[in-house]
């Protein structure tokens, strides 16, 4: 079990080619993002800004997760009200975060399992490039999300309350294997 203070010191000195997280006291390494990741993120950012200009989608914002904020996670995106993370520093509390976004890479075995539900974040969006799908997870409890809806790239994806937007994913068919 790695103490949070040790993790934060290690993460500060980590090269930009690696993303570290502390989940359940264990160090996790996330894959480096490629150009398609960035393109998909920018697509989602534009969708969010078009439909909800009152919200910001922050790339790789560090979040304090788990009981007593002892975990550290970096979702690919964190959707929150505008200016929500101003003055928060590298690791911010999860209160006020409406949705996290993660993406698989072609070399990932699976998306990292982070405790966003236990932190009370209402929605989790997982974009799976290998299968060409979106998983929209909602209704968090203290352990997991109780509801999941799966969409194929090309379908209209309905993001429920509190985000309450629908996005057309046809463009994303260009970024699958």
TrEMBL record:
Annotated Putative restriction endonuclease domain residues: 4-163
Gene3D superfamilies referenced in this protein's UniProt entry, alphabetically: tt1808, chain A (3.90.1570.10)
Signal peptide: none
Chain coiled-coil ranges: none
PANTHER family: SLL1072 PROTEIN (PTHR35400:SF3), SLR1083 PROTEIN (PTHR35400)
Protein name as catalogued: Putative restriction endonuclease domain-containing protein
Source organism of the structure: Streptomyces microflavus DSM 40593
